[in-house]
Amino acid sequence: MPSPSRGEPPALTLRGVVKSYGALRAVDGLDLDVPPGIVLGLLGPNGAGKSTTMRMLTAQTRADDGEITILGHSVPRESKRARALMGVVPQHDNLDEELTTAENLLVFAHLYRVPKAERAEAVERALRIAHLEDRRDTRADKLSGGMRRRLLIARGLVHRPRLVLLDEPTVGLDPQVRQELWSLVASLRDEGVTVLMSTHYIEEAERLSDEVALMAKGRVVRHGVPADLIAEYAGKTVEEFPAGADGHEELERRAQAAGLPTRRTGAALAVMRAEEITEALRGELGRGDVRPSNLEDVFVSLTGERVE
Ligand code: ADP
């Protein structure tokens, strides 16, 4: 894995970005920097404002306030130039059903102004990346769900973008297809492409992202390397205690008084940084089930909200 290019200007910058729908602030003062050459996961529950953010980046919708800069270009003022350097993979499949795999790619090579003499090679390259060489002449409506999704990604890569936006790339896909797409995203990063991926799947964000921005209610509440965020907030292990006769309140109060963050997990109370539980506190809490901590623990402890 190449190391992210620290010190270079960010591939993408958002400052104080706001988008309202009537009284609802879907995006509410969003600040975000995406360093070049990394996969950044924008993680949040449904309704957090991820898609709205993506739509502003692609100039499908206009921010009410704030600044957006993509690869040095201010959006929406210079969105045409930004767009030429950027690959966009939409959440909803909008392939042309009547065209073959290769024809779908060729149309986009044309739209993205790949010079005519280079288009055939650009299509071949995209087919290779998406492992669709042997489906080049298959009509889109005859492709499996996983192939279609790979083609959607390949289509966004046909002009060799330096930045790729993936909006919920694996939503609704079965686990095997998700794995295929994950390796596709990892290989993009290995080629030095910057990837901004929105997702509401914790596992996806944790596995694929060099950095993750946790989003809730239209803002980024925390941004960092997943392992660092987990170590900082949730430690190595989490211990889950079943509810006592008085519910969780007493357990929760004691753990928090000892400086350990807690979260509710179904009927149980989860105590984070369980490896720091002292003998004295152990006497008060009893013993629960220990498991490794994860990004979900961080998210819930910061926002009180759950993601998938
Ligand atoms: P996410 O992608 O994180 O699920 P969205 O950006 O889709 O979140 O939505 C953020 C909030 O904005 C939600 O409350 C959603 O209902 C609202 N919203 C999004 N798009 C529109 C729209 N076109 N009109 C009105 N409300 C919208």
UniProtKB/TrEMBL annotation:
Presence of the UniProt keyword Transcription in the record: no
GO function term, MF aspect, one: ATP binding
Compartments (UniProt record): Cell membrane
Keyword Kinase: no
Domain annotation ABC transporter: ranges: 12-242
SMART domains recorded: AAA (SM00382)
Primary location group: membrane
Bilayer topology annotation: Peripheral membrane protein
Keywords, comma-separated and alphabetical: Antibiotic resistance, ATP-binding, Nucleotide-binding, Transport
Gene3D superfamilies tied to this protein: P-loop containing nucleotide triphosphate hydrolases
Domain of life: Bacteria
Name of a matching Pfam family: ABC_tran
Entry similarity comment: Belongs to the ABC transporter superfamily.
Protein name (database record): ABC transporter ATP-binding protein
Originating species: Nocardiopsis endophytica
